[in-house]
Design goal:
Elements lengths: L4 E2 L8 H4 L1 H9 L8 E4 L12 H18 L6 E7 L15 E5 L2 H14 L3 H9 L8 E7 L5 E6 L10 E8 L3 H4 L6 E6 L4 E6 L5 E6 L2 E6 L2 H4 L6 H18 L3 E8 L2 E9 L8
Antiparallel strand pairs: 1-2, 2-5, 3-4, 3-5, 6-7, 6-12, 7-8, 8-9, 10-11, 12-13
Length: 283
């Protein structure tokens, strides 16, 4: 079994070793506001979904270290699947692999890890891979990352995926954690900004009926306060900061990107960056 790998240290940038999601964040961690975390490499899984005593001890030490870095004895974390063929140019697997938010305590972290491993056998995953001619048994890593207690979360497309306009950048956002936006649970607030200056072309306030929040058992959906439903969940400054981040990430990647971000106490965090895999017309 390979040693656990930290996002901000050498060796965690190879998707064959840790999966696409973790490798992408590792490449960005030194330059962008990526929350700290560690990854179980693909070969940590072995031949089953059980955790060996040696791996359990390694996760325990890493979780303790992450707690020290986060200022908590039992830090809240996101436990996220990271498959070797995920977040690539041809397939993103967005919303297919398992992620568990607001996981606390070693036993719950270990349980979430085994559930991420098990998700690789999900029929949806195998069918998605088969449709794209991929390996239905491709390996999977697991990323354990400090949870951002988001006041608002957003998905940003560095070009307009609906119209194909390459001079437009699109932001979808809602209050709370990002699951409500990623899953399509709500009609989010939407900004369309003109590239490269990021002047606002259009804003539509969404009917934000629900939001994802933390609770004792992970997360849950709750009604948004009536006073907040028709109020923009981002300030103009925050929307611009998201646009600037997406443009920097696109320039670094060399292709249009789909970015997940969160704001906590007005501080911006980068949670995921992948290529836009839907067809974008040239313009």
């Amino acid at each position: 079994m390979s040693a656990l790998l930290w996002l901000d240290r050498a060796g965690c940038d190879d998707p064959r070793r840790v999966g696409g999601k973790a490798a992408s964040l590792a490449r960005l961690a030194a330059e962008f506001p990526v929350p700290p975390g560690f990854c179980l490499p693909v070969d940590a899984r072995g031949d089953a979904d059980s955790i060996s005593s040696a791996l359990r001890e390694a996760v325990a030490r890493a979780y303790e270290t992450l707690g020290a870095r986060s200022g908590s004895d039992a830090p809240a974390v996101a436990v996220r699947s990271s498959a070797v063929d995920e977040d690539g140019a041809l397939a993103s697997f967005a919303g297919i692999f398992s992620s568990y938010l607001n996981v606390r305590g070693l036993e719950d972290v270990l349980s979430a890890i085994t559930r991420c491993w098990a998700s690789a056998r999900d029929p949806r995953v195998r069918a998605y891979r088969a449709r794209r001619g991929g390996d239905v048994d491709a390996g999977i890593g697991v990323l354990v990352q400090a949870l951002v207690p988001a006041d608002a979360a957003a998905v940003v497309f560095s070009v307009n995926p609906a119209s194909g306009a390459r001079d437009e950048l699109v932001i979808n956002a809602n209050w709370g954690l990002g699951e409500s936006v990623v899953s399509g649970l709500v009609t989010p607030d939407t900004w369309i900004l003109r590239r490269p200056g990021l002047a606002q072309l259009q804003f539509r306030v969404g009917d934000k009926l629900q939001m994802t929040v933390r609770d004792d058992k992970g997360t849950r959906e709750v009604p948004v306060l009536r006073t907040l439903r028709r109020r923009p969940c981002l300030t103009d400054g925050q929307a611009r900061a998201l646009g600037e981040l997406a443009l920097r990430l696109e320039e670094r990647a060399g292709h249009p990107v789909d970015v997940e971000c969160a704001f906590a106490d007005d501080r911006l965090y980068l949670l995921q960056c992948r290529p836009i895999t839907t067809r974008v017309a040239s313009s």
